[in-house]
Amino acid sequence: MALQNSNFMIRLSDNVLMVNDMAGLVSRLRRRIPGFASVGVLTDRNVEETVIEQTGLLQKISSSAHMSVVKPGEASKSLTVVEQLSQEWLEAGMDRNSLIINIGGGVVSDLGGFAASIFKRGIRFINIPTTLLSMIDASVGGKTGVNLGGAKNQIGTFSRADEVIIWTGFLKWLPSRELKSGFAECLKHAFLQGGEALRLVNHGLPADPATLASLVEASVKFKDSVVNADLYEIGQRKILNFGHTVGHAFESASLLANAEPWLHGEAVAAGMLVALRLSVRVAGLSPDFAAKWEEFILNNFSIPKTCGMTSMSLMQFLRYDKKNVGNSLRFVLLKEPGMPLFDQEIAAESVREEVELVLSLLS
């Protein structure tokens, strides 16, 4: 499909658009809604109270849409909430010719996409990401899912949104901590690409909105190119899990700690510290390169305190990683920037040693 641009939008891929302003977003949604029997909107309480109420977005889109609001945070990514949403949609008269519009961050797109993919055996949905992380990662690529027993994304589907509509203007409502969390995924993409992509992130999170929008555009195009070549993660798409193997363990452990849970990007940043060290140890990555970017991560991401986490407790969560085969721990490593290696089997003791060292850096 040819990618076409207009005066209010840029088509980044076959199902991802970037619009210039709120008017462009509303115009696109109004073009998509006619023809559906009913429309549901899913968001979280934070987005409802800031973005939706302050912009009047729901009234501009559709005054008759059924709105569902969940609590913000990973706790909403559960089968219990999926059941509650399904019951709401059933009682609202939604059928297989209904449309769900997910407005929010990664939790909303993961949850809403999964619920839509199984309701009535699957109804169509659109993602409107409002966080940096969801713009470049969670809402793009067709992965949906919920957590199970504290373990991340154990139940889910591959189900691509009809469309992902990105307006970076939403980022003005985003706290600094959330912006930094999203920037971790930009850094991950840069490691995987090397070259110019690393130079673009070398100065940290851009303060200029136009530069940040360009970074979003570049990240989305890169991820989409990887996903299109391997939608179901049989091979090359696995590289997008760089930093996520131990990152998900950090994130899961934080959910069980008596402190504020880590954001996804914070956990991925910590996971990349481990992945860089393992890359030196196993894949031949330059120690100088790893040391430079380790310092960059520690200086640019406000990774929370480890709250009593231990290497042994994190190793327990690693058992649930979806890339594992049997008792084998599998990682994405870097041989050099722009040259990732997936399905790298590493002995558990080697992993534990590097996790221990990273915990000492973060304590």
Description:
There is one protein chain. With 363 residues, the protein is α/β, with parallel strands linked by helices. It folds into two domains: 9-173, Rossmann fold, CATH 3.40.50.1970; 177-362, Dehydroquinate synthase-like - alpha domain (Dehydroquinate synthase-like, alpha domain), CATH 1.20.1090. It has 14 helices and eleven strands. A seven-stranded mixed sheet has the order 1-2-9-6-5-3-4. The protein has a two-stranded antiparallel sheet with strand order 7-8. β1 (9-11) and β2 form a beta hairpin. α6 (132-138) runs parallel beside α7 (176-193).
Task: Offer a few descriptive terms.
363 residues; Dehydroquinate synthase-like, alpha domain; Rossmann fold; alpha/beta; globular; two-stranded antiparallel ribbon; seven-stranded mixed beta sheet
